[in-house]
Automatic annotation (TrEMBL):
<dbReference type="InterPro" id="IPR036291">
    <property type="entry name" value="NAD(P)-bd_dom_sf"/>
</dbReference>
<dbReference type="InterPro" id="IPR050177">
    <property type="entry name" value="Lipid_A_modif_metabolic_enz"/>
</dbReference>
<protein>
    <submittedName>
        <fullName>NAD-dependent dehydratase</fullName>
    </submittedName>
</protein>
<dbReference type="Pfam" id="PF01370">
    <property type="entry name" value="Epimerase"/>
</dbReference>
<feature type="domain" description="NAD-dependent epimerase/dehydratase">
    <location>
        <begin position="4"/>
        <end position="223"/>
    </location>
</feature>
<dbReference type="InterPro" id="IPR001509">
    <property type="entry name" value="Epimerase_deHydtase"/>
</dbReference>
Length: 288
């Protein structure tokens, strides 16, 4: 497969690039900086893209935001946030169609659903009601991409939850500060969230990329694995590394809504669950 990838230097993109290389894919990275190796084409969400090279598929993982923030990632520049992410994505999709690229997968978010009553299981055919600019931008970009579906063009989206893990051992990960604070005995605020390992996220993407077009054209797929409270996360981490501190209390109130992932499972996707979480934490050094 000849694959184009935006956002390869980002956290999610790192997992996707690692999977692509493991699959022996001919990978070309679209971004502002050339990678250490492999194909590269200059690309910026805030500028018209160059003509894209011939490829079998494009994965769009690039996202322009205030560092460290997704929801609320617009900061004090809402117009620029929309221009770069929604409008920049539309220009990229135009370029992909002009180049005759047959598949495009967009990395969306569970934020497209917006708030729902406690206990509601989120399904892909639910009406979308995002309550943040981030969620609205993702929903608008999904809708634009899916509306382009033709017999020769297969667009799909992945509605991804929180992602954990390291694409390459020794690289930064989302829990580094949390684990460091916990190991040092600093106070930890209770929190519960839905999570999936980055390698499982990349495996879900691969399932969509390689599925028959009739199974994925114009469709969004939920992608999530664990409902994870910091109490359970840090209890497990403490047990694995002999850390003497007590974990925080369990998060108060109802947990986030779970996403139903039956559609992705029907393509053969199976996440790693608690065994993968345990193995990931065991491989991290004490202190994160």
């Amino acid at each position: 497969m000849r694959l184009l990838l935006t956002g390869a230097s980002g956290y999610l993109g790192g997992f996707i690039a690692a999977r692509a290389r493991a699959e022996g894919t001919a990978l070309t990275v679209l971004g502002r900086k050339a990678p250490d190796s492999g194909g590269w084409l200059r690309f910026d969400l805030d500028a018209p893209p160059s003509a894209l090279p011939a490829a079998d598929a494009l994965v769009h993982a690039a996202f322009s935001h205030v560092p460290g923030r997704y929801r609320g990632g617009e900061g004090d520049d809402a117009d620029g946030f929309v221009r770069r992410n929604r409008d920049g994505s539309a220009r990229l999709f135009d370029a992909a169609q002009a180049a005759g690229i047959g598949r495009v997968v967009f990395l969306s978010s569970r934020a497209v659903y917006g708030p729902r009553p406690p206990g509601t299981r989120l399904r892909e055919d639910d009406a979308l009601a995002p309550d943040t600019l981030y969620g609205r931008m993702k929903a608008d970009t999904e809708a634009d991409l899916h509306a382009r579906a033709t017999p020769g063009f297969t667009p799909s989206s992945l509605r991804i939850t929180g992602v954990y893990g390291q694409a390459v051992p020794g690289t930064p990960h989302k829990w580094a500060d949390l684990l460091s604070d916990f190991a040092a005995g600093r106070p930890i605020a209770p929190r519960i969230a839905t999570e999936v390992h980055g390698a499982d996220m990349a495996a879900g993407l691969w399932a969509v990329l390689t599925a028959p077009p009739g199974q994925v054209t114009g469709r969004a797929f939920n992608l999530s694995d664990l409902m994870l409270d910091r109490h359970e996360l840090l209890s497990l981490y403490a047990d694995l590394h002999g850390i003497p501190h007590a974990p925080p209390d369990r998060a108060p109130g109802p947990p986030p809504n779970e996403m139903a992932c039956d559609s992705l499972a029907a393509l053969g996707w199976q996440p790693g669950g608690l065994p993968r979480l345990r193995a990931t934490l065991a491989a991290l050094p004490p202190g994160g």
